[in-house]
Structures are given as C-alpha cells and as structure tokens.
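Input structure tokens:
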C-alpha cells in the first residue's frame, strides 16, 4: 500500500523566510569557496652550463689542483666548489652556487666514462688533429648502439 503522507522539506535555520536559494547555472549562483591547495616545494631550476662557464670552471679547478690540499681522495673540497661558483658569478654576473658546480662535475665524470669506454672499444679510435673519437668501422657503431639500446630497454 502506498502512503498518502506528504513529505515536508527540512527547515533551514540559516535562511530567512522569503529568500530564494540560488542554484548552479543561475545568474545569482556563487560557487562555494575552494580550499587552497597546499604549496608544493619549490623545484630548483637546472643550470645550463655554457662554454664560458665551463672555461672559467676549468681554469679555477686547474689553479686549485696546483695548490696543495685543495683535493680530497674522492674529489674536491667544498671550498673549491665555492671558489668556482664565486668566479663564475663574478665574471659572468650569474647566480651559480657550489651545489651547481658539484652537480656539473658529477655530470662531466659520467660523460668522461662514457667517452672513454667508447674510445677504448674495438672499431673506435682518437683523432689527435680534431680531438674527437672516430669510428673506423661502421659495424662497430651499429654493435655499440645495439648494446646500449638493450641495456636501456631492460632498465625501463
């Protein structure tokens, strides 16, 4: 059996009698406030190292190597990285810090090891005139790329 009772809406105590409630889509509708998103930690922008920056870095590092005590067993001391940053900033008007220098050194070491392996691989050599790695055998390059591709495809 169906009930003949009429359902009354719940009383809204926050609304005055005679006022209308605006609905989404109507001109008077104002969306509820959205809670503020928490701020994400700021990400450091990457420093792009130009040729002049690299030249200054290498000059300062070569000076520091000639000094006694500027190197540790596994690299340079913190004040050496700061000296490079100070020189780059002073000469080029930039805002490089010691962490940028340390990161660049880490990248250069990785690139050096890759180039050394390539130079020492069969079918490759060194051109002393142009100071570049040369590929004497085209098949050696294809084999090298195949090995590198297989390494990276299994890591992803």
């Amino acid at each position: 059996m169906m009930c003949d009772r009429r359902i009354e809406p719940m009383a809204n105590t926050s609304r005055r009698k005679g006022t209308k409630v605006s609905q989404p889509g109507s001109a008077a509708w104002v969306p509820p406030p959205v809670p503020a998103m928490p701020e994400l930690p700021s990400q450091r922008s990457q420093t792009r190292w130009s040729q002049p920056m690299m030249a200054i870095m290498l000059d300062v590092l070569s000076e520091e190597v000639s000094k006694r005590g500027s190197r540790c067993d596994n690299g340079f001391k913190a004040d050496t990285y700061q000296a490079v940053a100070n020189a780059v900033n002073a000469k080029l008007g930039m805002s490089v810090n010691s962490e940028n220098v340390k990161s660049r050194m880490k990248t250069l070491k990785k690139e050096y090891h890759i180039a050394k392996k390539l130079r020492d691989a069969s079918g490759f050599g060194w051109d002393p005139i142009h100071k570049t790695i040369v590929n004497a055998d085209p098949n050696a390059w294809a084999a090298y790329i195949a090995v590198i591709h297989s390494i990276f495809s299994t890591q992803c």
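Strands lie at 71-72, 75-76, 124-127, 132-135. DSSP finds four helices and four strands in the chain.
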